[in-house]
Amino acid sequence: MQNGVANRKKERLTQEALEQLLQTLGQNRDEAARRYERLRERLVFFFARREFVLAESLADEVLDRLAVRISSGEAIELPESYAYGIARLVTQEENRRSIREAEANRHFTRNISSVADTPDEAEMQQAMDACLSLYSEDDRNLLMGYYISRGRALIDHRRQLAESLGTTPNALRKRVFRLRRAIESCMRARLAHRTGAR
Amino acid sequence: MNPSSHSEALREFLLNRMPADQVEVFEERMIRDEAFFSDLQEAEDELVDEYVLETLKAEDARLFRQRIDREPDLQDRVALRRALVRGLERRVPEVVAAAPPNMAPARWRGWNRLLIPGLAVGIIALFVISFQGMHRKGAARSTATTGAPAAPQSSGGAAATAVLFLPAQLTRGASQEQPVLHLGGAWTLKLELETPAGDSSGRWQVSIAQEDRTVFSAENLTPRQAGVVSYVVAEVPASQLPPAEYRVRLSPQAAGSAQPPNTWNLTVLP
Question: What is the ipTM of this complex?
Fold first, then answer.
């Protein structure tokens, strides 16, 4: 299957256009970069929910078009809202393209990762062990305590854990959420390098 | 919108049960409002958790399963969560066997009484006692004089050095997860920062800033190699990282280098 995003007539993103986009997002370079990354993350989520396999490419397409608009002199006060409008347009374009491709090729299949790319259980546990070891004993104990129970006891035990920490169940949930995301992000990075090393 | 209905609305959206006209409003807000998107991410992560632990209602599980079947990223997240939960379950017998040696005998007997009705309850008690112990140590440190840190105390297992590996961004705009760290009794944070695209040449410099103030910097760092991963190491005194949000920056030492810096947001928890 040809990559429609790559073959489509693509507006050229210059370094200057990217710089202007970053300046629109913030005067402080670090803050602008952070805002760019967060906007990209939201766009990826937007496209992934629509089951577009190339969600990251489509998010980049939206940001490229936004940068070109800004560099062409268009005054954009709310870049995130403007990006949403572009995302809806890209969605329509991508839906039309998919329909055309599906009609042209009746054996159309999704480009899902092949089985060979999927890490096995041992590799997942190795990555988990390595990443968990990077965190403090308190963090490891917190996670083990959070997941120790099952079924009806789960909620009560988590409430007890929150009380023991002098916090609320909601605050505990948020803390565990941040910890989980960091560890799983570490696992993804390690598993990705495993793939690169093969 | 009260918190309960806000949570319910997020769940309806994530389970594709929201009416189409409301979906558009939700999506527009999600792109425009960063805080709203953070709430959405948390809510979706809770769904992943409940799905893996099989605590979702049958209809919710069925709807979420439909999304998982169609979204590769969700499949990956479910797989990672399963691996994390299984890995934590594997470690539980180690926690039971390695009870802190500095627990007073009377409290140990009390812990054993809790263990008899059920292993899970006993382990919860162990975590409770462990955390209470850490809280007392934390309180003692907070009353020490400012400036020079208090003398190290026997912690029954707290590491002197905490280690944190921060991977480089893998694509041009890869989503950047925000690492979270609790230093506990550690005296030093050993930061291992992956260089961009496995660059193992030249020298690097690291800086850590809180808002506009630089709290730590190190220069002329030589990359180390671990398999395909190239990284630099910076040892940061824990006293320079009180609980706060920081910006960690890794950049080439050479002025005018075309290599852009790598930056991470790091949260140090109390």
Answer: 0.80
